[in-house]
Write a structure and sequence with these properties.
39% of the residues lie in helices and 27% in strands. By secondary structure, it is α/β, with parallel strands linked by helices.
Length: 409
């Protein structure tokens, strides 16, 4: 640092209008000032512009400050000047390159209590907030009490001594306030992910297809009970799958189409996949369900890859078995790796989304693993979770705002 310069933090405040930055930096340029850092935020037409400036030490510094004040008075703005010591500046420089994290708060409606709770936890764990951004769209005055979709993103510095305790604290907030809170590293991969792998049943669609088929076969309650135990992790997936398939023996294949046509997509699924496609992402369904329904969704949503179990059918009837190996949790993880390799991607560039215990292996190896409206075991084990918004809440975790996605429509 040049010893003949002093460092000033210049804060400019007032009603936002064109030309403010031009006026201030125009004055600085006449005094050979070096801009070390600059940033601004506008909240409801109120501007806060900050400039960290290295100012040559001379008798003209007071003149520079007076010139800025006089120019800003004409714009109905005001400025504050804070001297920064060399030690404080050096400490700021040394923070460069250190890990940063993003805390994302998602809810149907965000109120001050939610923000207070989240920021209290981050503070308790030694995290300092650098920046706060609203990612959700502006709300009309007469709609402020409606439940919709809201998101605020916090950029934080610091490393918690116990990341697991931090995660548990955020999970407690999620449960207490019916909100979702994600904590992730702000790495180069965050906006450079290029593949999203979805489970199908109860993730992309609001049903377990095997349960729907069981209803058609007249064994709905028996199969549903086994499905629930498997999703909770109480029964090995392959064992439960074999048991459920056996109960479907003799089902007429003609019911498959009618079951497919009544399947409902989960909230936000269509918007999410449409947006991902426009952003250049590849998408895949990797499911312990059945290819017939995966292919149906491929046509409906434009998914790039589908991997699922192939129903074995003879004489127009389901045999109670599948052709080939059963796709269980480990196979899902293997398929995710294979797709990533085929696309020339690192695992850090892959997002995996699922709801059941058999999704945990693929959630664990993906760069971003998200438990969606998941069972308690899965929610506690996954890196991130969304339980209160739709699937398109994932766009917020990637840092995309509603304004970003509106441009694509």
């Amino acid at each position: 640092m040049d010893s003949v310069k002093e460092i000033l933090l210049i804060n400019v405040l007032g009603r936002d209008k064109p030309g403010v930055t031009s006026v201030v930096t125009g004055v600085l340029s006449r005094f050979d000032v070096t801009v070390l850092d600059i940033g601004q935020a506008v909240i409801h037409d109120q501007l806060n512009l900050g400039i960290l400036a290295a100012v040559p030490k001379s008798d003209s510094t007071e003149t520079m400050i007076e010139d800025i004040h006089s120019n800003l008075i004409a714009l109905d703005m005001q400025a504050q000047f804070l001297p920064i010591s060399d030690d404080r500046y050096q400490d700021w420089v040394e923070q460069q390159g250190k890990s940063r994290h993003i805390v994302t708060l998602l809810a149907r409606k965000i109120n001050s209590g939610h923000i207070a709770a989240v920021t209290t936890v981050t503070s308790d764990f030694g995290l300092n907030i650098d920046k706060i951004v609203r990612l959700s769209g502006r709300v009309k005055l007469d709609e402020t009490e409606k439940l919709g979709r809201a998101c605020v993103e916090f950029s934080v510095r610091g490393e918690p001594e116990n990341p697991l305790q931090l995660k548990n604290a955020l999970l407690e907030l999620s449960s207490k306030y019916d909100i979702d809170v994600a904590y992730q590293e702000d790495s180069i991969f965050r906006r450079n992910r290029r593949l999203v792998v979805f489970d199908m049943d109860s993730t992309l669609i609001d049903a377990e297809v095997i349960d729907e088929l069981a209803i058609e076969a007249g064994v709905g309650e028996q199969v549903a009970a086994i499905t629930e135990a498997a999703m909770q992790g109480e029964i090995d997936f392959k064992q439960s799958f074999t048991q459920r398939m056996a109960l479907l023996k003799g089902l007429d294949v003609s019911v498959l189409q009618s079951v497919a046509e009544r399947l409902r997509l989960n909230e936000g699924a269509e918007h999410l996949i449409s947006t991902l496609r426009k952003l250049g992402y590849k998408t895949a369904i990797v499911s312990g369900g059945f290819t017939f329904f995966g292919e149906y969704l491929r046509e409906r949503l434009g998914v790039d890859y589908v991997y699922a179990n192939q129903l074995d059918i003879k004489d127009g009837l389901v045999t109670g078995q599948v052709s080939g190996d059963i796709i269980d949790g480990q196979r899902k993880a293997e398929l995710l790796r294979e797709i990533a390799e085929k696309e020339g991607l690192k695992l850090q560039q892959v997002i995996a989304v699922g709801d059941g215990a058999n999704d945990l292996p693929m959630l664990g190896i993906a760069g971003l693993g998200i438990a969606f409206r998941a069972k308690p075991l899965v929610k506690a084990s996954a890196e991130q979770s969304i339980s209160n918004l739709g699937l398109d809440g994932i766009l917020y975790l990637l840092g995309y705002s509603d304004k970003d996605t509106l441009i694509l429509d």
